[in-house]
Structure formats: structure tokens, C-alpha cells
């Protein structure tokens, strides 16, 4: 098979990129430096509803949602008392929960099954990319394998090599500015019986068993709990384990009940972003393009959104449906999304890990105030859950300040009837461009790419407006008439 796109990195972002490209009919070569899959560890555990929608488009969303766990109560503690708790409600009409907790390793195995069933994807492990040569017709990747050197020619590449992408960025001449935090975090996945905690997320500020720092506990499937401790920068896991202090650390939380450690690791938070997400014929996605603190689950979720953004644009360019200039909008849109995530997580880290006396004083005063008056709970920042970025400033978006739904946002997931069968809008919004209108006589303009008109009469969408939905389910334009569609379509595909 001669691949049109090489995807470098066989983690969940690379897997998603490959599956979405194959869905558009693109032949993909999926490369990874490792000899095989690392099927251990929770790693990224929280998958958002909009990401489940993306995975549903490649046949994996329902399975991941079914196997995952959604906690319903968020409890926050300060020292020896509970500050407040919140019950999570879901007023939406989506069949998917707002999020699920499922280990990254299990998510990867589910995506592997989809890849194995896709003839347009070839997987090659044991391929370390050591050089990238670009020329007008495509790119040549030089790879080192256990059997020697090999070269691979493709039209484009997507670098999804995760936090190990430093070599690829160097090859492409891409900077990766930002900062790393001094404190470390210890993760232990433990399997134990804690039925009262099975649907609760618990966040502890300054508990007596981790003074001056934080602890976060997430429930996961199969009676497994992920515990994150903030620890000093010189923390030594091996030493703590050998002295029995790790067992004591865990028992301060769970008591004398039996438990087993499924996985453990120590990591440091980073806040970094690539200065370019497009380097000629190579796009950067996921942790290869940006690293953020995990509070709010913005790592994997934003990486999957990168994958979808890159896939439909590469497909449109390769099919001749759009000019190569469309790829410039990948940087414009996803760099802005990464910058937003970094701004939000930096604010969170200033509260969770205050690095100056002033920030420490402000956090202490905030927590003391909430302890006295729980109605002030919104001042406590333990991580705002990730939401889809709004492409309001994108060059592909037709601005309309009067629109009932802001152009650039993810389309609302409203019920809709199509060909006499009930469905929902996001379920049909990823097969091409979609025109949604309450005008029963609306006809789509001629188009070289997939374009469909659906009647939104009877839905909760505003009457009268014409919605142009992109292949990633974001609103490209909200128009007064179908006569305005040609110009909006040209803008949305970088043809003007």
C-alpha cells in the first residue's frame, strides 16, 4: 500500500488521526518508535463527550462510553473538613455522558481493534523517524528499525509522537517555549473496595497526610482508583517503596482494607506550546504540539480535537476539494485552542501550586473564606473541565455578531429526524459539509465535496437561520439565506 499520509506516533491521538483519515478514504501509514503497545497504566483517563462523539464517527465512541465510568459527585476538602460537594447533572440529549473515566491503555486497545478492521491503515512498530526531507511533491521519512534503515515517501505527515516529540520538532525547526513546574506528582492506580467512593471525585487541599500539597482521587472501572499526590521535586519513588512508606501513604487514605497497586509513576507538569503547528507538509498534534497540566483533562481531549481538525483538512486537500492553504488554518485554529488551554491551566496551577508568597497567601485566604462560607465555592480552582474550542477568530469562520449561535462553536447536539428516522445533529455532521435550515425548499449549491441539506423544522434550532456546519461539527456560518452559502463555503474551505 502506498500511503498518502504518515502518522508518527501510535498513541490515542495518532490512532484517531489515522482512523479519521481512513474514514475519508485516505491511505495511512501509522508509525511508532516502540516495538509494541505498552498496555499498562491509567495515564489520560478522562474522555469528554465531544471526544466520544469524534470516536463514534470511527466506531469506537459507544464502546469507550460503555466501558468507562462517570462520577456524579465532586467533593472538595480543605485540611480536615469538606468544603463543598457538587452533584453533576446532565441536561443534554446526547446518548453519551458528559465524560467517562477509562484508562488510556484500554482506550488504545479499543482503537487498535478499529484500526485492525481498517484496510486503509498499515501499522509499523519499531520505526523511529530520524530525518524528514520535504520537497514539492511530498516528504521522505528516514526511519531506524531493529533491522536497519528504511525510507518512506508520503504526501503529508502528522506528528503525534506525544511528549517524546522533541526530536521531530528539532528536525522541523520548531520551537517549544514554555515552562516546567518544580513539584512532581505521584500517581498510583490501586484496586480496592471503596464502594462509597465509586462515583465520587475527591480533591484534597493541604490534608494532614500530605501537608501543604494536594491529593486528587478519581474512580475508574473495575474497582480501581487513581490517586495523584503532589510531592516535592526531589521525591524518590523507589526509596519510598523500599522503606514501606508508599504503603503507609496509601493506607492514610484507604485504611486497613486490602489493595493492590496496578500501576505507579512520577511525573512533572509542563506548560509548553509549539511556535508552529504546521511545518510545510507536516502538522503537529497532541502532546507533540502542546503540553498542559492535566487538571481539567485538556491533554488527550484537545489532542483528539487536533486529530479531527487535521484529518478533514488533509483529506480535502488530497482530494482536490480545497487548496493547500486550508492547512494554514490548522495552525490558526489549534494553536489558539492550545493557547486557551495553557492560559486556563496556568491559572489553575497558580492556585494549586502557588509559587510566590503572594499566591500562597491568596490561596490560603480563599480556602479559609470558603470554609466559613461555602457559597463562595466558585473561587476555588481545582481545574475547569475541558470544553471544545470556539473557532470565532478563525479565517474559515464567517462572522455574524447577531447569530443566535456563535459561528465557530460546536453545533448543539439537538434531536433531528432524517429520512423519517430520529437521530441527532452531531451524529450526521461529520460526513462533509452540512446545511441545516428550516426552509423546506432549500437546495444545496453545486460543490465538488460532500455537501448535504437537512431540514431542521421541529428542532430546537432557531427558525429562519441557515447553519453551515463543517466536517468537524463546528458551525462555519449562520446565514440569513441559502443565497449566502457559496461565499461562506468558499471561506470555510480557504478558497477566498
From TrEMBL:
UniProt key word Oxidoreductase: yes
Matching InterPro entries: FAD-bd, FAD/NAD-bd_sf, RIFMO-like
GO molecular function: FAD binding; oxidoreductase activity, acting on paired donors, with incorporation or reduction of molecular oxygen, NAD(P)H as one donor, and incorporation of one atom of oxygen
Record-linked Gene3D superfamilies: 3.30.70.2450, 3.40.30.120, FAD/NAD(P)-binding domain
FAD-binding domain mapped to chain residues: 3-343
Pfam families (UniProt xref): FAD_binding_3
Keyword Nucleotide-binding: no
Biological source species: Nocardia panacis
Protein name as annotated: Pentachlorophenol monooxygenase
Cofactor(s), names only, from the UniProt record: FAD
Keywords assigned: FAD, Flavoprotein, Monooxygenase, Oxidoreductase
Residue spans crossing the bilayer: none
Amino acid at each position: 500500500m502506498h500511503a498518502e499520509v504518515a502518522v508518527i506516533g501510535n498513541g490515542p491521538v495518532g490512532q484517531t488521526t489515522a482512523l479519521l483519515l481512513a474514514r475519508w478514504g485516505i491511505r495511512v501509514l501509522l508509525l511508532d518508535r516502540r516495538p509494541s503497545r505498552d498496555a499498562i497504566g491509567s495515564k489520560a483517563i478522562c474522555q469528554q463527550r465531544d471526544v466520544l462523539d469524534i470516536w463514534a464517527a470511527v466506531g469506537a465512541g459507544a464502546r469507550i462510553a460503555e466501558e468507562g465510568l462517570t462520577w456524579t459527585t465532586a467533593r472538595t476538602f480543605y485540611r480536615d473538613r469538606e468544603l463543598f460537594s457538587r452533584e453533576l447533572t446532565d441536561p443534554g440529549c446526547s446518548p453519551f455522558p458528559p465524560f467517562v473515566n477509562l484508562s488510556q491503555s484500554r482506550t488504545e486497545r479499543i482503537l487498535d481493534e478499529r484500526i485492525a478492521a481498517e484496510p486503509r491503515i498499515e501499522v509499523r512498530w519499531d520505526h523511529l523517524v530520524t530525518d524528514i526531507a520535504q520537497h514539492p511533491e511530498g516528504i521522505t521519512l528516514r526511519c531506524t528499525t531493529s533491522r536497519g534503515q528504511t525510507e518512506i515517501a508520503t504526501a503529508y505527515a502528522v506528528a503525534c509522537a506525544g511528549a517524546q516529540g522533541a526530536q521531530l520538532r528539532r528536525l522541523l525547526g520548531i520551537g517549544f517555549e514554555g515552562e516546567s513546574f518544580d513539584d512532581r506528582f505521584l500517581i498510583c492506580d490501586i484496586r480496592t473496595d471503596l464502594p462509597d467512593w465509586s462515583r465520587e471525585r475527591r480533591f484534597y487541599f493541604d490534608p494532614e497526610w500530605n501537608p501543604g500539597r494536594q491529593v486528587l482521587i478519581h474512580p475508574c472501572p473495575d474497582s480501581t482508583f487513581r490517586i495523584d499526590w503532589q510531592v516535592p521535586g526531589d521525591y524518590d519513588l523507589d526509596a519510598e517503596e523500599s522503606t514501606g512508606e508508599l504503603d503507609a501513604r496509601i493506607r492514610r487514605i484507604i485504611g486497613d482494607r486490602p489493595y493492590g497497586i496496578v500501576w505507579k509513576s512520577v511525573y512533572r507538569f509542563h506548560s509548553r506550546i509549539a511556535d508552529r503547528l504546521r511545518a510545510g507538509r507536516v502538522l503537529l498534534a497532541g502532546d507533540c504540539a502542546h503540553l498542559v497540566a492535566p487538571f481539567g483533562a485538556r491533554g488527550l481531549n484537545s489532542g483528539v480535537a487536533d486529530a479531527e481538525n487535521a484529518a478533514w483538512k488533509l483529506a480535502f486537500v488530497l482530494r482536490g476539494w480545497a487548496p493547500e492553504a486550508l492547512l494554514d488554518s490548522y495552525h490558526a485554529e489549534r494553536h489558539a485552542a492550545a493557547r486557551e488551554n495553557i492560559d486556563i491551566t496556568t491559572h489553575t496551577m497558580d492556585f494549586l501550586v502557588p509559587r510566590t508568597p503572594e499566591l500562597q497567601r491568596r490561596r490560603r485566604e480563599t480556602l479559609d473564606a470558603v470554609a466559613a462560607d461555602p457559597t463562595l465555592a466558585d473561587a476555588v480552582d481545582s481545574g475547569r473541565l475541558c470544553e471544545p474550542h470556539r473557532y470565532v477568530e478563525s479565517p474559515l469562520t464567517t462572522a455574524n455578531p447577531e447569530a443566535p449561535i456563535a459561528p465557530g462553536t460546536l453545533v448543539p447536539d439537538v434531536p433531528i429526524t432524517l429520512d423519517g428516522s430520529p437521530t441527532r445533529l452531531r451524529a450526521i455532521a461529520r460526513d462533509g459539509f452540512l446545511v441545516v435550515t428550516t426552509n423546506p425548499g432549500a437546495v444545496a449549491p453545486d460543490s465538488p465535496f460532500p455537501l448535504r441539506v437537512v431540514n431542521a423544522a421541529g428542532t430546537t434550532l432557531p427558525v429562519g437561520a441557515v447553519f453551515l456546519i463543517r466536517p468537524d461539527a463546528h458551525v462555519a456560518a449562520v446565514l440569513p439565506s441559502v443565497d449566502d452559502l457559496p461565499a461562506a463555503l468558499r471561506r470555510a474551505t480557504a478558497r477566498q
